[in-house]
């Protein structure tokens, strides 16, 4: 996992823990010091392709994190 993807993932985790809802792309960009929401969108899409999170299209606060440990336990 790249450093940027890890930063985004950790920011989303922390934001959800504090606020109870997922951050917007704009909030993520500001939170990790990126200027363009499009870059956040691209990296979030890659995290989704990796199976780390899910994004519900056209939903406000539509990011949902997956716990990899649950998947690993279920596969036993």
Features:
76 residues, mainly alpha, Arc Repressor Mutant, subunit A, two-stranded antiparallel sheet, globular
CATH class, please?
A: Mainly Alpha
The CATH superfamily label reads: Winged helix-like DNA-binding domain superfamily/Winged helix DNA-binding domain
| Domains (count) | 1
Content of β-strand: 5-15%
The number of helices is: 4
Contiguous low-pLDDT stretches (5 residues minimum) are none
Choose one word for the global shape: globular
**What is the N-to-C order of secondary-structure elements (H for helix, E for strand)?**
HHHEEH
For the report, how would you describe the main beta sheet? 2 strands, antiparallel
The residue-averaged pLDDT reads 85
Distance between the termini: 24 Å
Structure summary, number of beta strands: 2
Radius of gyration: 12 Å
Helix content: 55-70%
Structural class: mainly alpha
CATH topology: Arc Repressor Mutant, subunit A
Strand order of the largest sheet: 1-2
CATH architecture: Orthogonal Bundle
